[in-house]
Amino acid sequence: MANNTRGLRPLVLCGPSGTGKSTLLKKLLEDYPNTFGFSVSHTTRLPRPGEIDGKHYHFTTAEKMKQDIEEGKFIENATFGGNMYGTSKDAVKTVLDQGKVCVLDIDVQGVKQIKKTDLNPFYVFIKPPNLNVLEERLRQRKTETEETLKRRLSVASHEVQYGEEPGNFDLVVLNDNLEHAYDQLKKFVKNHVLNGKQGK
Ligand SMILES: Nc1ncnc2c1ncn2[C@@H]1O[C@H](COP(=O)(O)OP(=O)(O)OP(=O)(O)O)[C@@H](O)[C@H]1O
């Protein structure tokens, strides 16, 4: 069954911090076990409570990450809120080798870089209802300090602008109601990413 996905285009989920990418991704991975594989990004930020090294992120140092970037080991990388993030070639290869559809959770800077590669994924933008709701979600998540929260919000409006620009994404999902947003994502996945090739 896993081999049925071989050759299918990867799926990029992008959107401002707190917009609900991880939440939607979790639902997708639960709904389609064995079909999708998450490309585990590298980051120099500290783990949040409950985050597991190698599962949620590969936690690394700025020194090591800079060196790996110089050595060409990354497909895309970005600095956000004083921390580095990136997708290594190995992270994508690991998923493809499992015969799964590779899902990448990246920001706008990463999307712009991926567009210059031959990865050829589907691009989905997850849009927050507005910046006040985004702030509320980030506050409720209790992962941010006042400073990191401000930084995340300050880039969010530019990201939404890029997300809404026609042609930049294959699908823009408004994450107002979670079930509604997930339905839109799932429909797109069924019709385009899986292209009728397999069910659950
Ligand atoms: N539709 C929704 N309605 C209400 N709350 C939501 C909705 N979608 C997500 N949330 C909540 O908003 C918070 C942020 O969501 P999540 O962590 O998935 O965002 P993210 O885009 O992955 O952020 P980051 O890029 O910082 O990892 C979480 O606490 C999540 O439970």
UniProtKB/TrEMBL annotation:
The residues forming the signal peptide are: none
Q: Name one Pfam family in it.
A: Guanylate_kin
Keywords of the record, alphabetical order, are: ATP-binding, Kinase, Nucleotide-binding, Transferase
What the entry lists under CDD domains is as follows:
GMPK
| Single Gene Ontology MF annotation | GMP kinase activity
Q: Record's Gene Ontology CC terms? A: cytosol
* Residue span(s) of domain Guanylate kinase-like: 8-190
UniProt cross-references to SUPFAM superfamilies, sorted A to Z = P-loop containing nucleoside triphosphate hydrolases
Does the entry feature the keyword Kinase, yes or no? yes
Q: What is its EC number?
A: 2.7.4.8
Write out the coiled-coil annotation as residue ranges: none
Q: Name the protein family.
A: Belongs to the guanylate kinase family.
This one is known as guanylate kinase
Give the organism the record lists: Agrilus planipennis (Emerald ash borer)
Lineage at the top is: Eukaryota, Metazoa, Ecdysozoa, Arthropoda, Hexapoda
